[in-house]
Design goal:
The protein is an all-alpha fold. The protein contains ten helices and no strands. The longest helix has 24 residues.
Length: about 190
């Protein structure tokens, strides 16, 4: 996804933060969350432990995949951009496609790795439940313009449930493209409704 132009210092800080978290997630997967120390993460990322704490005040913060906030907001905007005659599920499907095709191959691979960590490491899953709940609300709000009343939340729950189901299946056998599998699942959901 295109990012606004930032200065060299901000880009370097963002790369450092991302690298620290990627190493942390890899170590959590290899060794377990409890068995992994901040010192091990710092060593793997080639930074000092104090640098890890500068970006992530607690070890638990390393497990929070906070860019889900921006993804949910981008999805909401993309749903709103769909023509009024498009069904709610097709609007979400088109929004999903618009947002995820904007990722570079490297960003998409990093996202898949983070999603896999969230789905397979219990502490990472637990750390991100709040983000998933927030995304549920954002999607329900986006659906409100297409499906008034309580049906918007029910539809959002169906969309999220289908998405989580596809990702859980993918996590147990991480071959193939989960974005493609999600697109196919949303297509089938649209056919059912």
């Amino acid at each position: 996804m295109d990012q606004p132009a930032t200065g060299l210092r901000e880009r370097k800080k963002a790369r450092t933060r991302t690298a620290i978290q990627q190493h942390a997630l890899r170590l959590f997967k290899e060794r377990g969350f409890q068995a992994t120390t901040v010192e091990q993460i710092a060593e793997a990322a080639e930074v000092a432990p104090s640098t890890v704490f500068r970006y992530f005040p607690t070890k638990e913060d390393l497990a929070v995949l906070d860019d889900y906030y921006s993804i949910a907001d981008a999805m909401s905007a993309a749903v709103a951009a769909q023509p009024p005659g498009v069904s709610p599920v097709e609007a979400m499907r088109a929004a999903f496609h618009a947002v995820f095709t904007g990722f570079s191959p490297e960003d998409r691979a990093a996202r898949y790795e983070r999603d896999l960590a969230m789905l397979t490491i219990p502490e990472v899953w637990a750390a991100n439940l709040g983000l998933i709940a927030r995304s549920r609300g954002v999607i329900a709000d986006a659906m409100q313009a297409r499906v008034p009343g309580p049906a918007a939340r029910i539809l959002a729950d169906a969309i999220i449930g289908v998405g989580l189901g596809v990702l859980l299946d993918w996590a147990s056998d991480p071959r193939g493209d989960p974005a493609e599998a999600l697109d196919q699942a949303y297509s089938r959901l649209a056919d059912l409704l």
